[in-house]
Design brief:
The chain has about 270 residues and is mainly alpha-helical. About 75% of the residues lie in helices and about 0% in strands. The chain starts with a helix and ends with a helix.
């Protein structure tokens, strides 16, 4: 099976992958005076802006679970990983064109490298989430529950979806250079079609089923499941099941597309 063969090839080069991820993180932090702070500053500021707009100005604190700020932080941190990964995987082969041509490494490693490095940055941002969680627990506003065990599964599921999408975007962008601009536009639109600043329950039928096709819908349901009471907004298991199916499908499609376009890409770069 092609997926198994390529997974084994990547696993055999896991040391190289680890080196590439470490290099990416060092370069990112070395070129910035604030370094790690930038990993969490953008989602925190955006959370603050949305909180001010929707809660303090529009008086719409009913858009998501309470405390709403914690709801926003989880959503925006997860979205940052998703958005940054797709933006960078779309140019993963172009930015490393010389190495892609001259080394015998599995070419998928350049896509996996991006998703892994962005995933590590997401993990680095989790202490900030814990700080806000403890703050709201002390105030009696946060309610941890047993569904917290779903959080690691949500991380794996997001990585699977990103890998599938990245394996599609990376070779297509080499052959269609305008794809980078398309990705940026689509991500802006997709942000509002993803329950980052609102709960899935606010999307009425039958449109909610369309929203379920966005893998981030079910992923965010899983990520938030352990942090809030669900007496008002129960977990939407239909969205979760759809996200699992779509993410796995994207991975198989991504492997097939990457394999099909690998030779044309090598000729192009």
């Amino acid at each position: 099976m092609e997926l198994v063969r390529r997974t084994r090839a990547l696993w055999a080069r896991r040391g190289v992958l680890s080196t590439l991820v470490t290099r990416d993180l060092r370069v990112r932090y070395a070129q910035s005076a604030l370094g790690y702070v930038w990993t969490v500053l953008d989602p925190l500021l955006m959370s603050l802006i949305y909180y001010i707009v929707f809660v303090l100005i529009l008086k719409r604190g009913d858009l998501g679970h309470q405390p709403y700020f914690l709801f926003l932080v989880i959503g925006l941190l997860s979205w940052q990983w998703f958005s940054a990964s797709l933006t960078d995987t779309s140019r993963a082969l172009i930015s490393e064109a010389k190495l892609v041509r001259s080394t015998n490494l599995p070419r998928e490693i350049w896509v996996v490298r991006v998703i892994a490095s962005k995933g590590v940055e997401f993990v680095f941002s989790l202490p900030v989430l814990v700080v806000f969680l403890l703050f709201y627990i002390v105030r009696g506003q946060a309610h941890l529950n047993g569904w917290l065990v779903l959080f690691p599964f949500a991380l794996v599921l997001e990585a699977v979806a990103l890998l599938g999408l990245g394996l599609i975007l990376a070779p297509v962008t080499v052959l269609v250079t305008d794809m980078q601009r398309v990705v940026r536009i689509v991500l802006r639109m997709l942000f509002y079609a993803t329950p980052v600043i609102y709960t899935t329950h606010l999307v009425d039928a039958p449109y909610n089923k369309i929203f379920w096709l966005n893998p981030m819908t079910g992923i965010l349901e899983l990520m938030r499941a352990g942090f809030f009471r669900h007496d008002r907004y129960p977990i939407v298991w239909g969205a979760v099941a759809t996200s699992v199916a779509v993410s796995v499908l994207l991975l198989f499609v991504g492997v097939a597309v990457f394999r099909r376009l690998e030779r044309p890409v090598l000729k192009e770069i």
